[in-house]
Amino acid sequence: MALATAGTALPAAAQACDSMPSWIQFACNRADQIWSTGNDDLYVTGYAWHNRSAYSADKIKSFREESWGGGYGRSLYDSDGDWHGLYGMAFLDSHGHVEPIAGYGYQSIGRVGNNLRFGIGYTVFLTARPDIFHYIPFPGVLPLASIGYDKATFYATYIPGGSGNGNVLFMFGKWSF
């Protein structure tokens, strides 16, 4: 966030954050920082593995595990080397329906050399599905793991569930510009 100095004004988004309740100001300021100073990211989705112990063989055969889609985001690495990102994507769900998703991701990053990195963190998001609330958006929080090299990053998250629902390992990639 840009700081105000004598005779200069805060950017409009930063001013809007400062007028919010204190408990949300940090998140608003971080989102403003990511959007205004982060890198452009291209997301590509591709695969959703359904845990074989949670579904019958016939149900597994009915699922699409190819989850083709993509999206756009912006992200940055903070002074501690941790990753913060804002993203929006759309992909085909297990039944071939379009599932939009938009959210924030955070990962603590470990580095091996200059270009190889591993991350572990979480994502907070809004999504919508026809089989859950008939496409009325709903929130979620999921774990997020990654391995990256230079500008490419491979991500995975696990959607928990019970017998016959959830239990999906969702994988996607990102290219940063």
From TrEMBL:
Recorded GO CC terms: cell outer membrane
Enzyme Commission number(s) from the entry: 2.3.1.251
Primary residence: membrane
Keyword Signal assigned: yes
Cell compartments where the protein resides: Cell outer membrane
Site feature: Role in lipopolysaccharide recognition: K59
GO biological process, one term: lipid A biosynthetic process
Keywords: Acyltransferase, Cell outer membrane, Membrane, Signal, Transferase
Catalytic activity of the protein: a lipid A + a 1,2-diacyl-sn-glycero-3-phosphocholine = a hepta-acyl lipid A + a 2-acyl-sn-glycero-3-phosphocholine; a lipid IIA + a 1,2-diacyl-sn-glycero-3-phosphocholine = a lipid IIB + a 2-acyl-sn-glycero-3-phosphocholine; a lipid IVA + a 1,2-diacyl-sn-glycero-3-phosphocholine = a lipid IVB + a 2-acyl-sn-glycero-3-phosphocholine
Highest taxon in the source lineage: Bacteria
Residues at the catalytic site: H50, D93, S94
GO molecular function annotation: acyltransferase activity
Signal in keyword set: yes
InterPro entries listed in its UniProt record: LipidA_acyl_PagP (IPR009746), OMP/PagP_B-barrel (IPR011250)
Role of this protein: Transfers a fatty acid residue from the sn-1 position of a phospholipid to the N-linked hydroxyfatty acid chain on the proximal unit of lipid A or its precursors.
Family: Belongs to the lipid A palmitoyltransferase family.
Record's subunit section: Homodimer.
Protein name: Lipid A acyltransferase PagP
Natural source organism: Achromobacter aloeverae
Taxonomic path: Bacteria, Pseudomonadati, Pseudomonadota, Betaproteobacteria, Burkholderiales
